[in-house]
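Exercise 7b. Backbone tokens:
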């Protein structure tokens, strides 16, 4: 066998990285490869540098514990077990366009101490399926602090995931939730 036919045994049928023997000159092939590499790396750099809005969870000493990407208007909820009624309470939040967190609604199963029962200022009370819902809060926070409960079993519901607060911090410790803008690259490293 000749050298040319042996080369075809290991070489894939088509590869943009291995020049064909017909067509472009070797100098033109180098320019095409260099241009391809430049476009690829520029595209990659732009993609990983794009700003992403993050729901950031920080510990008591302000160190970042977790960051989750959220789009404008995307919701997340926090569920806890009410200390008196021993039933779940869901507070549903949304990321507002000004990087604040908006309380949208509270959902609970039973009336009791500390649970809302009067609606005012445009709020709407409804009940369905054994649950009570108060919506229309229009309350905004630059930061929300939750204390990891010893018995309340706080959980974050985000993008189809359920994450217990004890994954972030031990019971009794505070967690600070806020919205920040970060680079996609940072997010991919610090999840």
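Sequence design result:
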């Amino acid at each position: 066998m000749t050298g040319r036919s042996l080369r075809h045994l290991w070489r894939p049928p088509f590869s943009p990285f291995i020049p064909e023997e017909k067509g472009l000159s070797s100098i033109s092939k180098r320019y095409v490869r260099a241009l391809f590499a430049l476009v690829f790396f520029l595209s990659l750099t732009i993609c990983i540098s794009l700003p992403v809005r993050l729901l950031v969870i920080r510990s008591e000493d302000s160190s970042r514990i977790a960051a989750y990407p959220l789009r404008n208007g995307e919701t997340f909820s926090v569920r806890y077990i009410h200390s008196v009624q021993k039933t779940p309470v869901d507070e549903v939040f949304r990321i507002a366009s000004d990087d604040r967190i908006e309380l949208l609604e509270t959902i609970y199963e039973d009336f009791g101490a500390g649970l809302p029962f009067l609606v005012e200022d445009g709020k709407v009370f409804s009940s369905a399926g054994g649950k009570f819902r108060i919506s229309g809060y229009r309350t905004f926070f630059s930061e929300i602090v939750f204390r990891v409960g010893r018995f309340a079993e706080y959980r974050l519901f985000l993008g189809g995931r359920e994450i217990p607060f004890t994954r972030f911090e031990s019971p009794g410790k505070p967690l600070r939730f806020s919205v920040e803008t970060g680079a996609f690259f940072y997010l991919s490293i610090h999840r």
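Instructor comment: The radius of gyration is 27 Å. Helices lie at 3-10, 26-49, 184-189.
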